[in-house]
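A protein record pairs a chain with a discrete description of its three-dimensional fold. The following entry can be read in just this way.
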Amino acid sequence: ERCEMVDGQPECIQETFSTCWLSGGPHYRSFDGKAFDFMGTCAYTLTTICSPDPTLPAFSVEVKKEEKENSKVSSIGSITIHVDNITVTAVRSENGMVRVNNHRSRLPISLSHGKLRIHQKGKSMLIQ
């Protein structure tokens, strides 16, 4: 719950959240909890806003898959996030780093007044 002043009156707004994730090469879970496996070497849209909503920032998350050496399974080559006129790309081969508007930055990083936070958690990257 988030409380703020609206027209001079205090108002509490219920905040909800959901999680989507991808694991390894092919495994995805959407915000509604459905599991998917994408085996190819294409670029996929993991999530985006389908219609404008004034309570949400326009955003998208794209995943680029690539061939994995000596394997029939593809792996994640990069993940690109577009939000609040910021583009963040995490490249698999650049451990502990992201590209913010094409400039390399070390993790952890907080952007857009703390609305976008990215940090390394073991071998995984957590994007909030």
About this structure: The chain is about 0% helix and 55% strand. The chain has one domain: 2-127. The CA atoms of residues 110 and 117 lie 4 Å apart. The two ends are 17 Å apart (CA to CA).
